[in-house]
Amino acid sequence: MRELHLGEGSLEAALLPEAGARLHRLRAFGHDLLRTPPDAEAHLREPFFWGAYVMAPWCNRLPAGDTSVNGRPVHLASNFPDGSAIHGQVSAVAWSEDGADGRLVARGGGDGWPWPYEVTALAEAGDASLLLRWQLTNLADEPMPAGLGFHPWWQRPVRLRVAADRVYASNVSPTTEPEPVRDRYDLRTLAPPAEGLDGTWTAASPPEIELAWPELGLRATITTSSMATYVAVATPADLDAIAVEPQTHAPDGLRRLLDGRQDGLAVLPAGASLTLDLGISVRRG
Question: What CATH number did the domain enclosing 35 receive?
Fold first, then answer.
């Protein structure tokens, strides 16, 4: 599988255009920080559990099956063992290169998701930093529900800080509501996160995320654009990595939109775009 390599300094990255334009590897000061498989083809065999990938046109779980949005029938097929339609539609499809700036492009929709759309990805590496930009554009002639997010799997052992005061404690329950963080859900201090978390943190604008690998002597800071006011965190006990996912909406985003809530998927007018900017900087210490 073809790899695009970025960076020649303290930070190096490898992207896979044929597997969702995802980050296969992010190496800083000689250490891999992402859960990177020895064989790049593993990204296609197990698309949700390796590297780091974009989620679009929605993030995390939506109920599979039939629904309707403004009279438009929507049919979402399940792509996950729990029966949900998870992480959008572009995380494992082949993207194409577009232009001299290295931009990658994927198109989707017009099927069970009735609105055609385009997603572009642009990455730029500095000496010890990586800048990423994704843009979701509605190609339909009517408004489209829209969400964007970034889903990295960070290698353990790792410490985490998410500067957020409220949490949707479950990404699985359709009735979860935000509540003040406390006990195992309080991630405001840099520390190993509790096992078995699968929720979304909010009330930090923009959310600043910190990670630390004491055994490697490395720390990382993640900053995002103001659209990404939610951070999903998953710490499965049976995986050697944790997910920390900046995104633009709360869990079960389509239902929340249909209920008229502000924390659901955005409504993207015809021809309009939703943009997610993200910066990862790594330092020793």
Answer: 2.70.98.10
